[in-house]
Structures are given as structure tokens and as C-alpha cells.
Design goal:
The chain is of the alpha/beta class. Helices cover 28% and strands 26% of the residues. The protein has helices at residues 33-43, 57-64, 85-97, 115-124, 191-200, 218-230, and strands at 3-7, 27-28, 31-32, 48-53, 73-78, 102-106, 109-111, 134-140, 151-153, 156-158, 166-174, 203-207, 212-214. The chain is globular, with a radius of gyration of 17 Å.
Length: 231
């Protein structure tokens, strides 16, 4: 299975830190945020990783290089200024991701999920990531997003909000067919393809109860940095 790290965001809420440094290269615990992902992916057995980028993307390529340092082969998917949003970026990178389901990880989150277990259980149960569908990692709603994104009916992701809701962790396994109607090289958010999968009954979800941080503000970056330095 291949993996993709989404690293094309401008990081507006992180300014002025991101005025001169792309958000995935901001340091937490003594290393760039994206390096935590690369190390975990390598440990989980991944070898090919696609990284999209836009804002200051040349710094990402210069810092990470070919990925040899982590036993990985890195492939880059450059995007124009302003980037292509999540679905547009994934659709543009599909030629590098192939025809099998692939893992996607947001470059601006930190999570202690076991990528190997998450992917093995998906491959072992193909119905969990059905054709034109996906399997999302969901987390309990954080304080800054109390409304959540989705509900669950068993493993089935739904839009019902009468009961408990959960937040999308920015980590999921996607079938390439989910993006067959997304034009490459054009901006599109992820929500329309996900809503289509919900309507088709092909969107599944797992709840992660471990540590997860949406590193979306300087305060959360500093808090995570202190936590990881202490650990």
C-alpha cells in the first residue's frame, strides 16, 4: 500500500510562523511535524510516499529529499499557488498512487495511531474500504470542534447528528475510485466525495481513542512541542 501526506496548505492560522516556513516543517519534539509521519510510515512497512505541496513547497523537497534517510522513496506532487484543496490534490496525485487503496495522512496532525494495524485490518476486510469508498479514522471531538463531523452506525459513517458525533482525524484509507469524478488540477474539497460515499453506503469509520492533535494554531503547536519534549 502507498501513502500520501497532504502538505499543501497555507497554514493561515499559524501565521506568522508559516510566513517563511511551510506548516509541515514546523518543529515539534525536536523534529519537523512531517518527519514524525515519515518515521511512523517507515516503521509500519511503507516504502512509497507521495507528498503534495504548494506554499513554500521547495523547502519541503529540499528538507526531505528522496526519503532515503527514512528508508522511503518520496514522490512529490506540486500544486499551484493557493493549492487544490484535499480532493483536488489527491485526484492530481492519483497517477503516482496507483489503482489500489492508499493511506492519506494530513500533514498538520499528530497521532499515535498504529498505521500498520489500521492498514492490515482494512486489507484483511475488503468490505471495510469498498469500491469507491473509504475508511476514516475518527476521534472524540476536541474542544475546538465540539460539533464533530460525522456519526457512526456500527462501522458505517452517517450524517445523523442526533447521537454522538466524531471528528475526522485527517487519516484514512481511500479507494482511488472515490475520486473518479474529481477533475485533477482543479480545487475541490474532500467533503463532496465523502458525502457521495455516505449516500452510497461505502464510507466506514473507526474510532481512535489514543493521542491526536490538530496542530492548527501556534498555541496547540507549542503545547504539543512541550508534551513531546517532556516525553
Amino acid at each position: 500500500m502507498k501513502a500520501m501526506i497532504l502538505a499543501a496548505g497555507r497554514g493561515e492560522r499559524m501565521r506568522p510562523l508559516t510566513d517563511h516556513t511551510p506548516k509541515p516543517l514546523l518543529a515539534v519534539g525536536g523534529k519537523p511535524l512531517i518527519v514524525w509521519h515519515l518515521e511512523k510510515l517507515a516503521a509500519a512497512g511503507f516504502r512509497d510516499v507521495v507528498i503534495n505541496h504548494a506554499h513554500l513547497g521547495e523547502q519541503i523537497e529540499a528538507t526531505l529529499g528522496t526519503g532515503e534517510k527514512w528508508g522511503l522513496t518520496l514522490h512529490y506532487s506540486p500544486e499551484p499557488p493557493g493549492a487544490l484543496e484535499t480532493a483536488g490534490g489527491i485526484a492530481t496525485a492519483l497517477p503516482q498512487l496507483g489503482t489500489a487503496p492508499f493511506l492519506v495522512v494530513n500533514g498538520d496532525v499528530w497521532c499515535d495511531v498504529d498505521f500498520a494495524h489500521f492498514c492490515r485490518s482494512t486489507v484483511a476486510q475488503p468490505d471495510i474500504c469498498p469500491i469507491a469508498g473509504a475508511r476514516l479514522l475518527l476521534v472524540p471531538n476536541p474542544a475546538h470542534h465540539t460539533r464533530g463531523d460525522f456519526s457512526l452506525d456500527g462501522k458505517q459513517v452517517t450524517l445523523e447528528r442526533d447521537g454522538a458525533t466524531f471528528t475526522y482525524a485527517g487519516i484514512g484509507i481511500y479507494d482511488p475510485a472515490l475520486f473518479r469524478d474529481v477533475p485533477p488540477h482543479q480545487p475541490m474539497k474532500l467533503r463532496p466525495p465523502l458525502d457521495a460515499a455516505i449516500a452510497a453506503g461505502t464510507l466506514q469509520g473507526d474510532i481512535h481513542s489514543g493521542r491526536w492533535v490538530d496542530v492548527g494554531t501556534p498555541a496547540r503547536l507549542a503545547e504539543l512541542d512541550q508534551e513531546l519534549q517532556s516525553a
